[in-house]
Structure formats: structure tokens, C-alpha cells
Amino acid sequence: MNTRPHTHEEKDVDVKSMFLVAVILFLSGGLIFFATWGLMRFLIARQNRQEVAHPPTAQSSVLFPPPRLEAHPGLDLQNLRAAEGDRLNSYGWIDRSAGVVRMPIDRAMQLILERGLPDVGANQTPLQFMQARPQEIPSPKPQP
User: Fold this and answer.
1) Out of 73, 94, 121, 138, which residue is the most buried by the measure of CB atoms under 10 Å away?
2) What is the pLDDT of residues 79-129, one digit of tens each?
């Protein structure tokens, strides 16, 4: 019979190494915690300095209004489609001074079939034509 007491096998588990690993993990966690805490304090202080240097204006609140909820989305969509349908199927001025008009889409397609597409490119590629064309809407000048 075996008279030895039951103990763990010391050759399989090195308690000192396991303790050392636990201490290293604990110290690494503390180091990471304090580094993150310091970074957050630095970023918050920097944001506060920027807010003091450039306070928000009353106009900036207009740029991002609160969300507007649709009370009746089905009715709103129906009204939108009706307005678009009216524009697609009626005559009207787009730019009276330039002589640009709006016409019903069916009539416009009929005119294109009868007359064909105009040759406005003069043997240019679409990209060359667009680059040679003057700007219709001037770009806004940057404000100082």
C-alpha cells in the first residue's frame, strides 16, 4: 500500500511562475488604465481649450436642426408624388431670362423622336464637352 499523502505534482505546475505571470498581468492592466486615464484627461482639456477659443455661434445651431418626425408619412409621400407628377406633366418656366422651359415628359419624348437629339458636342466626348462648357452656376467664393 502507498503511504504517501496526496499532494499536487510539482513538476507540472510551477507556482512561482504562475504568480509572476499574475503580477505582470496586474501591473500591465494598471499601466494601461493610467495611460488611458491620462490620455482622456489630455483630450478633454484640449477640447475645452478649443471650445473657449472658438465659441459656438447662434448660426451653427441652425445648420443642424433637431429631427423632424413625419406624423403621416403615407400622406406626405402621396403629396410628394402628386407634386412631382404635376411638374412632370405640365408646362412652366425654369429660367425665363435664359428661355429655359419645362414641358410634359410625354411631349418631350415625342419631340425627341420626331426631331432627334441635337448635335451639341461637335465630335467631342461628353467629358470634353462638359469641360469646354462655361459654368452655369458660379462657385461660391470662400469667406475669410
Assistant:
1) 121
2) 999 999 998 899 998 888 888 889 998 898 999 899 887 776 677 777 777
Q: How far apart are CA 136 and CA 138, in angstroms?
A: 6
pTM: 0.35
Rounded Cα distance, 36 and 29, in Å: 11
Angle subtended at Cα 135 by Cα 134 and Cα 139, rounded to the nearest 5 degrees: 150
- Which residues touch 111 (CB under 8 Å, ≥6 apart)? none
pLDDT tens string 35-59? 999 999 999 999 988 888 777 665 5
Contacts for 129 with CB less than 8 Å, ≥ 6 apart: 120, 121
Asked whether the beta carbons of 101 and 94 are under 8 A apart, the reply is yes
Q: How many CB atoms lie within 10 A of CB 104?
A: 13
Distance CA 84, CA 15 (A): 78
Give CA–CA dist 38/130, Å, rounded.
54
Spatial contact of 105 and 90, defined as CB atoms under 8 Å apart: no
